[in-house]
Amino acid sequence: MAFELPELPYDYEALAPFMSKETLEYHHDKHHKAYVDNGNKLAAEAGLADLSVEEVVKKSFGTNQGLFNNAAQHYNHVHFWKWMKKDGGGNKLPGKLQAAIDSDLGGYDKFKADFIAAGTTQFGSGWAWLSVKDGKLAISKTPNGENPLVHGASPILGVDVWEHSYYIDYRNARPKYLEAFVDSLINWDYVLERYEAASK
Question: Which intervals hold domain Manganese/iron superoxide dismutase C-terminal (predicted)?
Answer without folding.
Answer: 95-193
